């Protein structure tokens, strides 16, 4: 697979993720790295994150069906959290896996108790 192609795909994934995910959510992931890579013979974007539920790498790979596959890397193992993700679902799926979880009330309670101020709090 050509490096230029991999980098184009990685850049497209990054642009979709950043433009469609609210900045407060992206900031809560504490992203320190974006990198193009090949994962399981697929062009991909690798993120280094430091979320509440997952710290390490997230891989977003473009599969042959024009869907994204999202993986969490833990040590030497990779956990596929979803293998049919549309571009507009990336932020929500990744956020549930690495930061907010599935229990909205529990996450809001965590955020209200956090002194770091990096959590999202929605006042209604």
Q: What descriptive keywords fit this protein?
A:
single chain; 124 residues; five-stranded antiparallel β-sheet
Can you count the helices? 4
Largest sheet: 5 strands, antiparallel
**Percent strand:** 25-35%
> End-to-end span in angstroms?
49 Å
Mean pLDDT: 90
Question: Could you say which overall geometry the principal axes of the C-alpha atoms support?
Answer: globular
| Percent of residues in helices | 25-40%
Structural class: alpha+beta
Oligomer: single chain
| Count of individual domains | 1
Order of helices and strands: HHEEEEEHH
Q: What is the tally of beta strands?
A: 5
Tell me what you see in this structure.
It is built from 4 helices and 5 strands. The chain is α+β, with helices and mostly antiparallel strands and 124 residues long. The relative contact order is 0.17. The chain has one domain. A hairpin with a 5-residue loop joins strand 3 and strand 4. The protein has a 5-stranded antiparallel beta sheet with strand order 1-2-3-4-5, with helices on one face. The mean pLDDT is 90.
